[in-house]
Amino acid sequence: MKKLDIYLQNVRISKTEPFIREGARVLDIGCSGGELFDNISKISSGVGIDPHVEQKTQRNNYTLLPGYFPDALEDDKKFDAVTMLAVIEHIPMEILKKMSIDIDRHLTPGGRLIITVPDPKVDKILDVLMAIKVIDGMDVDEHYGYDISKTEDIFTGSSSMKLIHHSKFQLGLNNLFVFEKQSAS
Question: HSE on the CB side for 179, CA within 13 Å?
Answer without folding.
Answer: 25
